[in-house]
Amino acid sequence: MTTEEIMELAMEMSELEVEPADSSIYVEGKNIKNVFFGIDIGVEELVWAKQQGFDLVIAHHPPSAALRYEDIYKRHATFMMQAGIPAEEAHQAVAEKLTDLHIQSKTENFTRVVGMAKLLNMPFMNIHVPIDEITRKTFQRVIDAMLPATVSDLVYEMNKIEPFPHSHVKVEAIMGDPEQRVDRLPVLIGAFTNGGYSIAKVWFDHGFPGLVYMHIAPGEFQKVKAEFPDRALVLTGHMPGDYVGALIFLKELKNKGINVVSVGFSELV
Ligand SMILES: [Fe+2]
Ligand SMILES: [Fe+2]
Hints:
By secondary structure, the chain is an alpha/beta fold.
């Protein structure tokens, strides 16, 4: 396979229609048979992969701030509108964070990892939102098949998805009564990062009984909890959450005859 074909496979599997603005090919590769995968790839991993003779390194998180993170964060607004929340409110909810992301992107060193991949002539790409979208759809399917259900039953089922049985970080309800029954539980993953307080507030204001995030900053969580203590907030955890989609994608690469070595949960690929 080529790097281009691998990106297309990820797009197909995610059923995304948008261009993956936070995913890119930095050094093209052809005739790829051996892939090294990690959620975060730095120079060390690139050097090691080169020494080991891998044909391609795939990162999940983007190594380049030149990518348009903001475009992906706007998916939080898309999720809201798809759930019937008015467009104006949805756009307002993401506006402040879009500015933060834009300003933050100025600080990042976007030359180091990508530059070293080029100097090493090590084929290198990252696949971010397509893998997160596979994660989101996987969780949402499990949840929707059970609704209405108690939060604890939903969490129990979510913890059966790979790699959770092999992870010490589990899906967890960190807010609200776990025995409450919910009729809706949107999974807000695949929008670059969690929506923090401002996104959670809009969903809760619109009567949603709970939400699923991968993670949330402690200060943001305290704000949500102070205002909506009875609603359910479920966290999947960052690494096991990212590996839900990553493992599904990596297994598909294996089905296509590619040898895959993963940094995390390597025994599950
Ligand atoms: Fe992710
Ligand atoms: Fe992540």
